[in-house]
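Quick entry between incubations.
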Amino acid sequence: MPELRQDRFTKEWVIIAPERGKREGAKREGAQKPIPHYDPKCPFCPGNEAMTPEGTLEIPRQDGRAGWQVRVVPNKFAAVSRTGQPVRHVDGSRHTVEGVGIHDVIIESPDHSQTIATLPITDVGMVLESYKARFDAVSADPRVAQVIIFKNHGFGSGTTLEHPHSQLIATPVISSHVRGRIYEALRYYDDFGVCIGCASLEEELAEQTRIVLITDHFVVIEPFASPVPYNTHIYPRRHMCSFGQISPPELSDLAGVLKTVLERLYAGLDNPDFNYTIVTAPADHSDAQYYHWYLSIIPRLTQVAGFELGSGMSINTVSPESAAEFLRNVRARKSQGA
Amino acid sequence: MPELRQDRFTKEWVIIAPERGKREGAKREGAQKPIPHYDPKCPFCPGNEAMTPEGTLEIPRQDGRAGWQVRVVPNKFAAVSRTGQPVRHVDGSRHTVEGVGIHDVIIESPDHSQTIATLPITDVGMVLESYKARFDAVSADPRVAQVIIFKNHGFGSGTTLEHPHSQLIATPVISSHVRGRIYEALRYYDDFGVCIGCASLEEELAEQTRIVLITDHFVVIEPFASPVPYNTHIYPRRHMCSFGQISPPELSDLAGVLKTVLERLYAGLDNPDFNYTIVTAPADHSDAQYYHWYLSIIPRLTQVAGFELGSGMSINTVSPESAAEFLRNVRARKSQGA
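Done. Structure below.
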């Protein structure tokens, strides 16, 4: 019997239906091609800096060699314009805002072939430091209401470029989706007097069945109402509504956690396409008691179809409990083999 | 300058950014293979009826030959179970409902190679009649709260089978997504005393720039805050909250409208992968004054990436005004060429 589960943050239902996993789906064709360390046509490879706009942040290499380790540049095909004011127009029910904001690309490594799963932890740490520096700078822009940091890995994730990179898009509005999350979190806080994320974490730690990993500062969970197979949340254990509140030791811990989880997905699911995104409070809610930020990794193993588009619900053929067990065992296999 | 536009039904923002369309995206590789009229391994082809569960509805061929034209069967790999009761369990913040409901497959033609765009209008009419008959029957089931009818066309749409088919999934809950639409529609009705869909239609007919087609009973529109290129809505002109209220003349008109629109997408965009879904009021809101059903066609020309997953917003590189002009001209080219 399938089971419907309600996501506590969005109140959306998910159908957990492992039996449906037995139908034949589209298979990935052939082995993945090896990726070169350097691609002369790639706009993100060292030496091709002129192919991108001038950088807004560069972290130099730490190995004594010249050049950058992480480079942040404005997106050449930006979804929003860095100049202008977010002027609003209301004409009957047609509401528009001029498309002002920030759209950055965070180039994660000079090496074209790397990804978070394969980079050394110190290099992952530099990527996260660049997220934090840009998040803080962009959040302080009075035109910015909401900052989304995300990564698209593999062509099935929506990326158009192979070189490892993340992106940051800051918009002059809070999206309806985020407002819905705020509403539910506030409502929970009003009912119970505690942060919905802190409460969820306590329940998950007590139940244990969906825990993948625990470190000093983070807990990795397969969410109770996981909408897709192997959706993985990385929660800070301390109450923090905004990614901007992360401390240096937490950032350093997060680098190890993120690398470990992506390594396990890489090893366990054969380098799947995935997205990740930092789910955080809006720019001006930087100290809210009711909201809890987390990083969500969304493997793209299945496709959204008409049911999901029409209903907003999802059908997940892998239970989060079995996904958590699988991801715990990837570690076990790796340790045993080492 | 990109423009943010607010969807009036969901209040979600969309970034309309035509400039961003100039970046290179993944191209569809090679020409599409011709599809045979009959595939001996296909569970939906005539003669293979034993490969599917027993049918719940069959419409016989109208051309004098034996056999069925449309066949509705339970989905063999159903997302929900047809038996049992939607028992609810609440354990702290873990809310579940047993996965009871109906999951039908509507086999649209005995011919493996056809699609709505290529079927005769009378055959499309029979597909819609089967939607209506099943919608009515399933809505009357007291376990059912919400009925989603949808179609996945092409492997990029999430389908796993080539034979032309639609699906119906009835769930024992109203999804948060649909509840959000109801809330916004009710709020609009409370503010202005008219149905948000009727008001939208009036504004669109006055402005004209996003209209693709008008018939006796339907208006075809590229929505103001279209989340993806060529998203197309087919609205009934008469106030109706539920697809179950459609009359026989309207159903017959809809067959022509749906075929025409899909023909234009087929011709204009080279047989794109697409989904469509009927956006309708929940099963027990069958006569609401504030809600308006429509059919939404979602071409799958672009991929959802981390920004969309994190924010709920979309970036659309084709303005609905230019999409509407394009789809009006596909007709013109066709007529001139005929």
